[in-house]
Amino acid sequence: MNNAQLLNDNNKDVLTSSPWDFRSSQELSMGKVYEEKGYIIERGEIKYLNLLKKQIEAAFLDFTEKGRQISICLEEAHQLIKHDDSNNLRLHVMQRLFMDTTFHRNYFNAAKHVIHALCGNELAMQKRPGISINLPHNPNDALPIHADTWNGVSPFELNIWIPFVDCENTMSLYILKREKYNQRLGDSKGLLKLSSDDLFEELRDDLTWIPVKYGQILAFDQSLPHGYSINQEKSTHWSMNCRFKGLHTPYWDKKLGEYFMPITVKTNTRLGMNYKHPENWV
Ligand SMILES: [Fe+2]
Fold first, then answer.
1. What is the whole-number distance in angstroms between the Cα of residue 9 and the centre of ligand 1?
2. C-alpha closest to that of 196 among 219, 174, 166
3. Tally of domains in the chain
4. pTM for this one?
5. Is residue 229 assigned to a domain?
């Protein structure tokens, strides 16, 4: 069995690579999917997702209202927002959401079981999560193909991506699955020297547009190439993305206390950080 161990965990057979791997069967099977595909779709905690959506809708209404009493759902945002205004809307919503940490706490709780399974439970969280609002046929809202790790981002980060409308086809995030990425890198050493437009064309047939509905969350590996093409559907795309990482994992360009905030510092860590060695100890 090549060093693999068949263990019994709650009457389920679990294949682990080491006798010292004590992860539960559920954690192992989630990890296997994530490792193979580069992403996993799970159900989010609907109570917290609804709270997040309510806050986003309030910020959107606040932007569009300007004295008028208009109520419009997020999918139909393009009926009120001009292409040139999508970035202003994005900045306005972010400013409203991050006035305190209520939104962050709900975001974490909405995805806690996935974060715990893949990342751990003593964590740092991105201080200002990203928001994507992709109006139909707006080239300004496309996100060129990239991997975050190509630009100084730590590979220890887990990206939790939450849609606030149902996303399929070009409303979805696309990704190059791990196996394809490794295969294409092996086929052509010059692949990553291409411009992002050329790289997208080169990889287009191998990309996966990941369908995710409201109520689900996507955890993806941002060391794999990903992005948004132009939204060719009839609805506006709304999603948020936020990075989590094990508090004690290495930090690259994005520093703790600036980009990341510690959110679940355990008592033993707090005691350890405050420990003072007795003076005159021999
Ligand atoms: Fe990214």
1. 36
2. 174
3. 1
4. 0.93
5. yes
85 CA → ligand 1 middle, Å: 22
Q: Tell me the per-residue pLDDT of 50-94, one tens digit each, with 9 for 90 and over.
A: 999 999 999 999 898 764 556 689 999 999 999 999 999 999 999
* Cα 267 to Cα 110: distance, rounded to the nearest angstrom: 24
Q: Does residue 118 lie in a domain region? A: yes
The rounded Å distance from CA 235 to ligand 1 centre is 22
- For residue 184, the domain's CATH number is 2.60.120.620
Contact 169, 127 (CB under 8 A): no
Query: What does DSSP say about strands 237-246 and 208-209: parallel, antiparallel, or unpaired?
Result: unpaired
Distance (angstroms) between ligand 1 centre and the Cα of 3 equals 36
Radius of gyration of the chain (CA): 21
Buried b (16+ CB within 10 A) or exposed e, 34-73: beebbbbbbebbeebbebbbebbbebbeebbeeeeeeeee
